[in-house]
Design brief:
The chain is built from 6 helices and 5 strands; from the N terminus they run αββαβαβαβαα. The chain has about 150 residues and is α/β, with parallel strands linked by helices. The longest helix is centred in the middle third of the chain and has 16 residues.
Amino acid sequence: MSPDPIFPSPLMDDDPDTQLEIQTWRLDSLRVVRLLGELDTLTTPRVRVQLDEVLLTFDALTLIMDLTRLTFMGSTGINVLLETRDRVAERSGRLIVVLAPESNPRRLFEVTRMTDHFEVAENLEDTVRVLRQQGPDQAAWGVADEMS
């Protein structure tokens, strides 16, 4: 059966490498993981593998998950973040999730009330600045108050 010439089917790319980019880097005692694109059932396995690598060598005190450049996040993304939060807590670390205002991931966090279970900030640069001012020994949940 040929596609409808007037309403062609959308181009579907099932390659997770083209739907999501993962960047990681270290800033002093901070580790940053930035996700760009879509975090869904197709791309979460890649994210889990990358987070496993980050957490295997996690000697930083704080992990920042920058989700400000995600265009979409499904419920599987929430599951990955919950798993990550627990794994970071096991190492006595701190997890901060950076969510852009009015974004799909931010709305998902608010609808599912995950904002009550995560330390959330709105801007990576401001978050890093505040954390550097606070120093590595500050208690968890402090940055969210200052970022609001």
